[in-house]
């Protein structure tokens, strides 16, 4: 039990480097403006479902190790697309209702949404080549 608690604490500690950006901090660079944390159901409706641009939705959790690897990797690739696609980050512990609504049964789960509809999805971690192909398919490149 003590080991599990220590592991949970370790996984929730902020880290240096690209993993630190997976938390709730907002950056000010142009690439960061493409990525946002969903605040509530209304925010999700406004910024994801009603978005004129395609949106990648990253359902994650603070305690999820693979999420801490995938999140920054996906953010970097979204930033490279310079506003052609947006990235919404949804913490499943804070927004259980959205996770249930979109049938998220494991994290990380990533949805590709266009015009309010889910057009593609994957569960688990992917390498950069697979993520690039996922994003290119979403934006039609």
From TrEMBL:
| Cellular component, GO annotation | mitochondrion
Alphabetical list of InterPro entries matching this protein: Thioredoxin, Thioredoxin-like_sf, Thioredoxin_CS, Thioredoxin_domain
Q: Name one GO molecular function term.
A: protein-disulfide reductase activity
Recorded protein name is Thioredoxin, mitochondrial
- List each copy of the Thioredoxin domain by range: 24-140
GO biological process terms on file: cell redox homeostasis
Q: Which family does it belong to?
A: Belongs to the thioredoxin family.
For this UniProt record, the keywords arranged alphabetically read as follows:
Disulfide bond, Electron transport, Redox-active center, Transport
Q: Which domain of life is it from?
A: Eukaryota
């Amino acid at each position: 039990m003590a080991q599990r608690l220590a592991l949970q604490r370790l996984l929730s500690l902020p880290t240096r480097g690209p993993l630190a950006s997976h938390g709730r901090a907002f950056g000010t660079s142009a690439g960061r403006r493409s990525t946002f944390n969903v605040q509530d159901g209304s925010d999700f409706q406004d910024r994801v479902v009603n978005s004129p641009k395609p949106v990648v939705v990253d359902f994650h959790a603070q305690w999820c190790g693979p999420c801490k690897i995938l999140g920054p990797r996906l953010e970097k690739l979204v930033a490279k697309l310079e506003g052609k696609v947006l990235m919404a980050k949804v913490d499943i512990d804070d927004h259980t209702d959205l996770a249930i609504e979109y049938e998220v049964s494991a994290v990380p789960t990533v949805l590709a949404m266009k015009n309010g509809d889910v057009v593609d999805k994957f569960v688990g971690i992917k390498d950069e080549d697979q993520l690039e192909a996922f994003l290119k398919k979403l934006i039609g490149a």
